[in-house]
Amino acid sequence: MSDNKECQGCSSSDCSESAANKHIKNELEDHEEITRRLSNIEHKVLVLSGKGGVGKSTVAANLAFYLAQQGKKVGLLDVDIHGPSIPKLLGLEDAKPQGIDKTILPIPYSNNLKVMSIGFMLRSQDDAVIWRGPMKYGVIKQFLMDVQWGDLDYLIVDSPPGTGDEPLSIAQMLQKPEGAIIVTTPQDLSVLDVRKCINFCRKLHIPVMGVVENMSGFVCPGCGERIDIFKAGGGARMANELDVPYLGSIPIDQAVTMASDAGKSFIVEAKDSGATAAFQNIAKKVLEYHKQRLGDASEYFSGGARTDTAASHDSSTEENRMRIALPLAGGKLSPHFGHCNQFAIFDVDKAGGKTIGMEMVDAPPHEPGLLPKWLKDKDVEVVIAGGMGQRAKGLFEEQNIEVFIGVPSDDPQTLVSTYLAGGLESGDNLCDH
User: Residue 12's pLDDT is what?
Assistant: First the structure.
């Protein structure tokens, strides 16, 4: 642990350590406020793609509209900072959000559907958002912390393409999203990028609810001949190879383009089209996924095994569950416990020897004696650390938290898996002060 004796009596705002602790404290308070907001949302679903231009926003918008049609209270959040499409797709280009009591009111689309997008805050549709990572992180946090979503059955999040700052930020801030729907088009170039998106979900322990293949073939309205403009079946093959569910394919249909450009839902404007029938079949599977116990939901998908950890959560009893915390620096185990900036906290099934969930939590200010109680309040029973002072180790033992010290720096999932397999061994204490 670092010695903060001098800093405790320092009132200077220029003190770098004091400023860092204040920043961490503010981040922790923001995290708690986001947690409070999200507690009113039952299901949080990400719509992702590793490739732009595959129709991800169209899928997200019409999924939200379909769920609202079924009587669900739905929020649609567009976090594509540089290319917000949701306002156009829903005919809300001129809408402007209102503020009340330091919060933001989402735009009402219907009785059951509320919408928020950076597009509502631009002066003109032609304005370019030229921001670096911290500003994008800030607005995404504001959408979750300051928007009055109220009680929702579903929050559908339309994420930008790729696996960069915005998808990573929203995935972590959502705090255990229910799952992700991955959108691709059939051609190899698209599938290649989307495969990375599935691995992105796995590394963040986000369940993959299924793959949607959009723009899958075109049926000529004149002669009825089907033409596979972008090939066919790439999404299904990818889902099979990566062992994730395949939700279905949506054909190219002029009715989808016309409805989208008009700011309307194609499942309403083109009720008899093949695209509508295909999409409704996909949306029903998503709805059914949440109606059933997660452990039984796989029967509702048309192929592939589910890989999410949430389903296995139901199979383990409370007695067999345990929480393990690892202090991180740069995404790996911190060699010095007092220098960590995040904790990875794993929910594990002791009897099954497997991980059933994980969350990333910003570390609180490193005040003497705070971390043991803070982790105890989070029901942590084991801490895996590189190095820790003997006094700190004693404080953890007073909280009945077991500590493994001298563990080499590695990614947290590997260390937890090794611990559950009984192969984790303590080594030399790397930070005995």
Answer: 56
